[in-house]
Amino acid sequence: MALRISCNTQISTSPQAKVDSRSKKCLQNVKSIVNNVGLPSMSSSPLEALKRGNWVKLICGASFEDVVDIRNLSLVYTLAGVDCIDCAADASVVNAVNEGIEIARDIINLRRPWLMISVNDDKDLHFRKAEFDPEDCPADCSRPCVNVCPANAISFQENTAPEYSFDIQIPRDGVITERCYGCGRCFPVCPYDKIREVTYIRDATTTSDLMKSDDVDAIEIHTSGRQTTTFRELWTALGDSVKYMKLIAVSLPNGGDSTISTMNEIFSTMEPNLQSFNLWQLDGRPMSGDIGRGATKETIAFAVQMANARDRPPGFLQLAGGTNAHTVDGLKREGLFQTTIVTENSDYATSRTGSADSSQALIGGVAYGGYARKIVGKALRGMQSQHGVAACIEDHPQHLLLALEEALALVRPFKCR
């Protein structure tokens, strides 16, 4: 349910006074919405949200590194009540997330969401960039890559003639690297097959240093699930840095019948050094939530499979990959909003639930990525078209209000179902 709050005011005064008065009114409306919306996460901890099954995570993107957008997204979704913000394992990106969180908490007193960094143990779709030489593009090419890119990460000078001046310089032709998050939609549409895939693996030493800082609360390790050797190597390389984390997440695709055995192998690797809670991110259809209604079907099917599995290792379950505004209805249809009893008589169960017989949600939560960025991105693009690409959204409360409406329309149904 979208909230509709008008920013328009009728004041007979000078144009600048009208703008200032409207901005103050919109900022007050932002505060009023956050105060009145009644999200459980406004006072409860992220861990409590996982146990209750209404944890919501914002995925900025493991390869998305546009620090201006990341800062503004983090600010908006902190106000909307997310429990965690997942971002690239890069110091500048982490700083941008933290800045957005703290500005949101300056606007209104909120509990702080956890900050999670994402890394990979091997080649992974989330850790790649598109690349091509714009000089190689034929002059008569229709540029389909520009149209299919959901991140506005491909630009050509003749297609981007803004009527305003940018505050910072951006490459005008080709891939804007910091905005590309590796969705891959441009690869098959290039009529001349000019676009290349560039993959990378996050450095374990750099990641370990970030984990030991006060800025990071959780880590997510993306693994293919095809074999566990690379996971074991990365886990070993991270060493004692894992003890600084409040949550260890593992993101993996649906490997069919082999998924449970892979999860058990991974858990057996982690368990000797695991001093925090753990989570399994069920990556149904990676980076597709913004495509449409059907994109969420695969992650819901994955959740049904895992919820019914008897030999699944300990850990919260969280959906991702194709999640969007239709995910909640899909989970309801499958009866996945239930609680289950944790009865394992083990040190693990006791230390992580508080007792050896306690209830927790069957599905711990959901993560929204491409869809979450898309709906708020409309407000961000509108702001940037007027005020430049480096604009801070809190300085333009009219746009902040519009962005918050969109974010709440996504977050609230899962939080308050």
UniProtKB/TrEMBL annotation:
Residue span, 4Fe-4S ferredoxin-type domain: 128-159, 171-200
Keywords for this protein: 4Fe-4S, Iron, Iron-sulfur, Metal-binding
> What Gene3D superfamilies does the record tag this protein with?
3.30.70.20
Cited InterPro entries: 4Fe4S_Fe-S-bd (IPR017896), 4Fe4S_Fe_S_CS (IPR017900), Fe-S-bd_prot_LdpA_C (IPR021039), LdpA_Fe-S-bd (IPR057431), PSI_iron-sulfur_center (IPR050157)
Instruction: List, in alphabetical order, the Gene Ontology terms for molecular function in this entry.
Output: 4 iron, 4 sulfur cluster binding; metal ion binding
Q: Which PANTHER family match?
A: PHOTOSYSTEM I IRON-SULFUR CENTER, PHOTOSYSTEM I IRON-SULFUR CENTER-RELATED
Q: This protein is called what?
A: 4Fe-4S ferredoxin-type domain-containing protein
* Species, as recorded: Acacia crassicarpa (northern wattle)
